[in-house]
């Protein structure tokens, strides 16, 4: 594959291994399970798989707490299984993108076990420590998972920093030894033939905790450039950073076309639009479509020619988009297809999260059936602070990360074909109607719609490289835009809601246009869109 822009032209599929396919009956997905589903992924047409972490981990944060970066956790399989997966995926023109968690390790990593032994241990400064007095943390920095970001270690008389769980101590990127260990580890994975890396919360590695700076620290891009030069630039990789604080300006550094940092980043500005101003993910407000149009269009136009977008609605941390911003009841199929059309018509590399192609939905479980540390900590914190349990549960139903982590729904057999054991988390009860087998057998399913969108991207360069222009910016129901590449134009029309809307189709899309895809069987009227109706036209 000599095409240096291959990562701009493919669609990536994210697998959350724990919930994808179990092969040995322990109720937990594993690498052999993924191997058994490679032909399903090949048929879908994707070009790379982003694997959430499978390295050795005590699983405090489901693998985002790594205790050995160069070995596979036995619950997922072995290094040989990983090497076989890389090889078998490669035979199907699918690259494997590893999830690198470099901001923190597990507290069970040998480095941290050494570091906490004494202040003069050679590994002590692999982490972030501050002298202190018990009960008086260095400052009020908080952990994303609740409580203080500082944990007291009595035998040292010091606190260590953990921006996530207590079992996820932050690595000290100011220490060149830490950086070199990381570069050596990445090179080791590159030598095994991985096709790229997803970099967990990479915008935090420049943190200055004494100044209470966490994201976008002053040395961040210096570290990014060194990391890229010492590793990624020595290969032909897709590299994507998770950067919650990215702006179009910083994205032009992260994904500079000169390759000095990464291929692209996940920015989350659109994802935060249904949060109450300054309150965070659990305090909800309805999405304002005009805001969504403004934000997504800004990212389309401001990166043009200077950086590259990722395109996503879902991942393992986010609720299912058809429940969040679609209609997972009467119009589940139409709205899931509309959301897919809206995203896959844009410029950038699209990411499909496992089950998104089936229109999998959120769940509403009793609290004891949830597993995610983030939402369980939230529940405890808010109920203890007097929030009505019903209100807390509504936040969890809407935004809890376990919405994305219920097992992949393969068929209507017990546990949706995910496991013949007891699943680590309940399967969504709607698996009898929503599953891959049913979708593959239904030519009008969301699955076949995704397959067509992925194929259209391969067939029409305008979808990959065309310039974006938003239409009807003030329309509060219609999200429509064009893409232009030379004489070729694409028109994407999406009715974002469940009422019928009328509009005037742009004159230039008069007669000789071609309908590429639609989520209704017919075109009732060119200047009308039925509930959640989406259409993509080509003009050459
Ligand atoms: O996520 C970073 C992060 O801040 C979000 O997960 C956060 O939990 C937010 O509430 C999501 O809605 C990354 C990984 O994707 C996540 O799974 C890990 O838990 C986290 O980092 C720590 O490694
Ligand atoms: Ca298993």
UniProtKB/TrEMBL annotation:
Signal sequence, renumbered to the chain: none
Classification via CDD domains: AmyAc_SI_OligoGlu_DGase
Domain Glycosyl hydrolase family 13 catalytic: 14-405
Gene3D superfamilies: Glycosidases, Golgi alpha-mannosidase II, Oligo-1,6-glucosidase, Domain 2
Xref: InterPro entries: GH (IPR017853), GH13_cat_dom (IPR006047), Glyco_hydro_b (IPR013780), O16G_dom_2 (IPR045857), SusG-like_C (IPR056300)
SMART domains: Aamy (SM00642)
Family the UniProt entry places it in: Belongs to the glycosyl hydrolase 13 family.
Protein name: Alpha-glucosidase
Organism per entry: Paenibacillus taichungensis
